């Protein structure tokens, strides 16, 4: 279903993604982090819906549809390293900082920081070219908003 999209995303030197494709790729990354601890529950999927609804001004129905498409894309996406590096090359730095904040929202959605989620978030932060300091600041913003 997403073969052509993934091919374009993972080819060397991908072009910047159109807005709708960037939304899908970034939401798939949220799903991947939520699934990192082998438990993908309603709290996490609902959090993803709220994040994308607020971030992209979507209705609840549109947010759920985007998440559903992202779940399918995430299942077909290559390994996290290639997938995340591809997003880095195709999405602006400011957008990637926002993604790190959204990833922290997902990790903290169930109230438990699992070691698998932390490890994957550290990897993704690095692969997206975001400093540990910026990631820590994003986490603190999320914790303060809770």
Automatic annotation (TrEMBL):
Q: Which domain of life is it from?
A: Bacteria
Question: Which residues are in the Co-chaperone DjlA N-terminal domain?
Answer: 23-139
Quote the Pfam families the UniProt record gives. Answer: TerB (PF05099)
Could you tell me which InterPro entries the record lists for this protein?
Answer: DjlA_N (IPR007791), TerB-like (IPR029024)
* Designated name of the protein: Putative tellurite resistance protein B-like protein
Which organism is this entry from? Salipiger aestuarii
